[in-house]
Write a structure and sequence with these properties.
The protein is mostly helical and 302 residues long. Helix content is 76%, strand content 0%. The model has no long low-confidence stretch (mean pLDDT 90).
Amino acid sequence: MSSIIFSILSIYVFIVMGYIAKRSFKEQIDERTITLLNVYFLQVFLTFWGLLLHPVDITLLYAPAVYLVIVVLVLVLSALFAAKLFADKKEYSIAMVASVIGNTGNLGIPLNIAVFGEASIPYTTVVNLVNVFVVYTVGVYFYSRGNFDAKTSLKNIFKLPILWAAIIAIVLSVNHYTPSDAVMNMLMMGAYASMTMQLFLFGIYMYDIKIRSINKKLIGWVMSLKFVLLPLVAFVILYNIDLAPMIKGIIFIELLMPLAVANVNLASLYDCQPKLVTALVFLSSVLFLGVVFFGVSILKYL
């Protein structure tokens, strides 16, 4: 577990670098340009690399199906109250979707390996695949709704090349396509560039954020959904279904992951208070360092 914590802390090197860069060069650094380059170009490489790295086995789809059911259920529960609590359209959009977009890939996969070993990889791969679609469908829709109507927000889902890249990569993987080493190296270069740029962007938005100025109700709502309601719903459902303990544990841990940096990308792309979203991602990452130990300790009760 200590190695995982060290891995989590080590990525903050790039976040700090982004923060220092923005503090040093101020307006010379354009967040919008970085977002467009990352979302429309580099993340296509990340999507292909992530989905082709391990073969997608459609026989393993029960685990991600349970994951998706829990996410949808929490979204429905959230919808019952969020509209009444948050009159501002952008705050409502953030309140609806931020907590269900977790870091199931870069953090969730290695954490599950640390807990369950490499046997977890096939399951975490397909769970992360479902999360990718949640991010670029539900996530795009709600972050877009902060500034656009429902029809335009639905159109925005299909405008992103990442969604199409994911569909193509899945088809290739299901049909047992194995890319050459040269192709995988190329995809890996783009993937790591994308991940590094995401962390830089996160650090850039961290500059000049004042936590005290953020709506405390929104902070409490998102953190409560992420670390109270979502794990509680997950625990109740997983406890009452017949599934292997390891698979139950994998699903529970993936749902416990802190807010993904993808939230910042989408908030920036659709101008849905990206600095506020950055603060929420940061807070969830800090809280996760304590929550993760509690989460792992209750796996034996599932």
